[in-house]
Amino acid sequence: MTKPTTIDPAEQARFEGLAKLWWDKSGPFWPLHGMNELRTGYIRDQIRHWQGTHADSERPLEGLRILDIGCGGGILSEAIARMGADVHGVDMVGRNIEVARLHAKGQGQGQGQGLSLVYECCTAEALSERGELYDVILNMEVVEHVADLRLFVQSCTQLLKPGGLMMIATINRTLASFLAAIVGAEYVFRWLPRGTHQWRKFPTPTELEDILMEDGMTIVNRTGVRLNPLNRSFRLVPYLGINYILVALKPTCVRQLVSA
User: Fold this and answer.
1) Does pTM surpass 0.90?
2) pLDDT tens digits, one per residue of 131-169
3) Domain 9-259 belongs to what architecture?
4) Closest C-alpha to 74, from 34, 41, 117, 16
5) Which of 5, 14, 117, 180 counts the highest number of beta carbons within 10 A?
6) Degrees to nearest 5, angle at CA 105 with 99 and 106
7) Whole-number Å distance between alpha carbons of 56 and 58
């Protein structure tokens, strides 16, 4: 009997071909570089709020074990590790992991060279099977590429410690997202290679929230992300119709789950 998996072979092959371009800020992954400063600040602030700490610090995430699932070439993993977190970056594409490791070493960081940053070619379900646990899970631009959304999210939920946070960033399935992420980004402006995204696989916030709540998670924050195509800048907005981020909290006990 074939074991269920979240890996989509077509998506894996596509990102294998793009792996070497991850750290080219003018290449196909420029949107990730553009979003990185915005979302790292958002991640930091959400974690501070969750912990009840607001004091400024050069290492505000120190002491936290954070999983960057679908880490790609390590753009977000490195930024989060610089804030003091113990980061485990995992990806299903071996070449992406090679790129991430090489870049960290080239910076004199990571893989034992100054930052607590380890990369591994692995899946969420494999991590769950071996009993890994994290304080925070960063699930950024991944859910729209998996083969089984429910299995993937449930596997990630199992990896989260009680009282931990999971943040999911993705693209909504709307007419606006089709025009912006498919027609605009892939065909008109040619910012991304054609076929990077499949509109039918974009999950709506309601679909994701339903899966999360079925697993006992509580949605504690949500925000939209807007791109200004003229200057390629990103900002947080209330509108969730294109890019959005959900923040979900895992209850610390059964009583919290019942009352949520």
Assistant:
1) no
2) 999 999 999 999 998 989 999 999 999 999 999 999 999
3) 3-Layer(aba) Sandwich (3.40)
4) 117
5) 117
6) 85
7) 7
